[in-house]
Amino acid sequence: MGNSSSASREVLQSLRASTSFSEDDINRLYARFKVLNVNNENGKLSREVLLEIPEFAVQPLVARVLSDSLAVTGGDGVSFEEFVKVLDVFSPSGSNAAKLDLLFGVIDHDGDGLIGVEELAEIWKLMIHLPLTEEQLMTAAEQALTRGDHDEDGKWSRMEFEKALDSTDLLDKMTLTF
User: Which partner for 7 in 23, 30, 76, 96 could form a disulfide, CB atoms 3.0-4.6 Å apart?
Assistant: First the structure.
């Protein structure tokens, strides 16, 4: 990618094939990435830089997704390709299925394929800005899980999670214009 004003042909083709962004969109995102990456030699954006982006700062879920991405990549930053792929899920053309998959993966922090009370309470703490005590938050999470726990195992599977979100507008709120 170097100092050019647009992404390399190879990167452009790869992202064009794997995201919903047009070539112009990808080049626009590349220009923004370069501005954000002005002081970083390794070609990656740090978590701190990412969280200074106004569109990300107002969306606590994005911060969690980016933190998870950094953990997977060894914590040294998010590459341009990773940056675009995360944005694709949050874009207006991102599918609800992709948003649901991403959200489930972010909440299922231990990666066991199920969402437990502690995991649900933890994500609510990030997203709900109400003066709730830890006990109130845990009680609310337990009640929500009980209502949507059709197999009565005390946790939500991916399918139970999807059904629980059917009556909400959460997936619609997972859209960023960048």
Answer: 30
Interhelix angle 96-107/60-72, rounded to 10 degrees, is: 70
**Residue 3 three-state SS:** coil
**CA triplet 111, 113, 117: central angle to 5 degrees?**
85
Q: What is the pLDDT along the chain (178 residues), one digit of tens a residue?
A: 445 667 889 999 999 999 999 999 999 999 999 998 887 767 888 877 877 888 777 776 766 676 666 665 566 778 899 889 888 888 888 888 888 888 898 889 899 999 999 999 988 887 777 788 899 999 999 999 999 999 999 999 999 999 998 888 877 777 877 6
Collapsed DSSP state (helix, strand, coil) of residue 150: coil
Helix pair angle (158-165, 134-148), 10° resolution: 100
- Rounded to whole angstroms, how far apart are CA atoms 30 and 37? 10
How many CB atoms sit inside 10 A of residue 151's CB? 10
SS3 content of the chain, % helix, strand, coil (to 5): 60, 0, 40
Q: DSSP state, 1?
A: -
Please give the full DSSP string across 38-103, using - where no structure is assigned. TT-TTS-B-HHHHHTSHHHHT-HHHHHHHHHHHHHTTSS-B-HHHHHHHHHHHSTT--HHHHHHHH
